[in-house]
Design goal:
With 135 residues, the protein is of the alpha+beta class. It contains five helices and six strands, in the order αααββαββββα. Strands 2-1-6-5-4-3 form a six-stranded mixed beta sheet. A hairpin with a 5-residue loop joins strand 4 and strand 5. The longest helix has 15 residues, at 53-67.
């Protein structure tokens, strides 16, 4: 087996967070299926379901880069069960528009197919996130 196929799903998720911190979207692309779905909390400003990696970059990652400063996603615990990895983390950032900072616990759930992320669900305190965006 090659080194790539020997990686666990948890290791792949760890790579996703490392690549996000480095701004390496191509490395993230390699971890996800082309038809990946990201389900953001509906109560979140801009929260909806995004289909495909390019849509995630355009509507989520780029928005984070333009609307937020000092974004930090710090994984604290990984829980794996078969093809699913749950990550408990702390999300923080400062709104570029309001200058308000926010920090809250968050959970990401990743479902894998063929060793790539097929579905990503995010659970967050939407009230804290949205309050940082309000003038």
């Amino acid at each position: 087996m090659s080194e790539e196929t020997e990686k666990t799903n948890t290791e792949r998720v760890q790579e996703l967070y490392d690549s996000f911190a480095e701004g390496d979207f191509e490395a993230i692309r390699d971890i996800m299926r082309p038809d990946v779905e990201l389900h953001e909390p509906r109560g979140l400003v801009g929260g909806e379901t995004h289909h495909g990696f390019d849509e995630i970059v355009e509507n989520v990652f780029s928005r984070l880069g333009t609307e937020w400063e000092d974004v930090s996603v710090v994984p604290e615990q990984y829980l794996a069960d078969g093809e699913t990895v749950v990550v408990l983390l702390t999300w923080s950032g400062t709104s570029s528009k309001t200058g308000k900072s926010v920090e809250f616990p968050n959970a990401h759930v990743f479902d894998f197919e063929d060793m790539k992320i097929a579905q990503w669900r995010s659970y967050a305190d939407t009230a804290l996130f949205n309050a940082a965006l309000e003038d």
